[in-house]
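thread: overnight batch results

M.L. [08:02]
morning all. the overnight job finished for the chain we discussed friday. pasting input first so we're all looking at the same thing
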Amino acid sequence: MTLAKLLRVDRKKFNLVFKNPKLRPPVLEEMYSDINKVIAGVAMQYRDDSHYALNYDALCGEGRACLATLIDKGKVEIMPTREEFFKYLKASINNRVRSLVEQHRFTIKRTGVKPPPRKAAGDRLTDEDFKSYRSVEVSIDDPDSGVQVEDLGQAMSEADEDLVRDIEQVLLPAERVVLRQLIEPNEEAHLEAHFESARKNSSTTRVRLEHLATGLGLSLVSFKEIHSSVKIKVKEYLTNMNTDDSEYNSSVRFLEKVFGVHVPPTTKKLVVRRMMTLAARDQYDKVDEVVVRALEKIKAHVPKGHSSSLSCFGILHDANNRLCKACGMQASCKQEAENVGLEDITMSPRLNGAKNMTRIPAITPHKQVVPDSTPHFLSERDEEVYSFLCDTYEKAYIENKMYFRHKDLDGGATVSGTSGILFCIQSLRFRFCKPHDSLKGELEQEGRSYYLPEDCSYDEAVSLLNAHAENHYAKANT
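M.L. [08:03]
and the structure it wrote out:
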């Protein structure tokens, strides 16, 4: 071996001192992370999860197979620089993936498009060359259809929209605007994003925070402050909601074991409430303090027992049942039945047994409420007429309405009937109760009621009142 050969420097080893990829030779151990990025980028670009051979993992596997082939062929040693190696690797992976796409997707059997014919140099392909010979049926509602059409009219589902409205209840007005901007950017934000993409000659458009802030006319600092506040409040709201849901789910799972029933996870809460209410009534012997707390957490009705049967309150309400009509708690019983989803359901006696289907009406004493306030009339004449009635006649209350009758009739100030009733205070007007035919012509008539005229004086009003009272007194004594 000559001295010249001994002193010759290996250029590839010498170039390892450079960090520039255009000068540094390829070293496989240094390039693994970048190689994985190249493979992942190609796989993401051509992925199709509807086909087994074109999903993300399958395409990544094809990329690694191309890398192994290049290593076996010694391409790592042949390529002079990293840049040349990556060009060769990416071209190889792209060619392989495109052939898979052509094989499994762009076929005449699926698309009806024949392969374009070979053209002479300089001849361009026209639309006629890509004409489809197969009709493609597009169905929006068919999940099995190969072609799907996106519904752009509804950006969010109804459930998502309800969640956003609930979150907005805990936000300030400015925070609500920012939240809506984050969910659905306005046109100004999209325009700013397109302008920036055009300035950078980028093929992709991405709406950033500065575009959202510009779309609302805010500075980026102000927008970020409000954005941070929104994130904190939304996180707290979702945490509390998840806590409530976890307690609800744990209670339902516990009641399933106690009563031996199964509740599918997608069942509505009202249906679960009704199911557990009926199960607790059917298996009343299993209801203890722990079960009661679980029933209360899911807002189900806790059964209560009498000496020989269970209470019918909130369970057996029936608007057409005579016992329910006579019950003093009919209104509250109806509301409780609606809360547990039993308002339109008739329970069969076979469900809980005949003894638990007995209705026991609750008779509540009727308390007549006597108002203490004096009516505030709009004129001095009405005030004087009211004072005359209080001094001359006896005041009585029927169904919270003020009436006047003769003082010499028996009975207390609160009466249960309409015996001896002369006048009534109705809408701050004086109504005559059953006036004589001779007086009807001097009174104001509205429908079937007769009132004291508004334009008469105090003396004329007193004369009409006394005449009406005398007619009633004479009629009562005949």
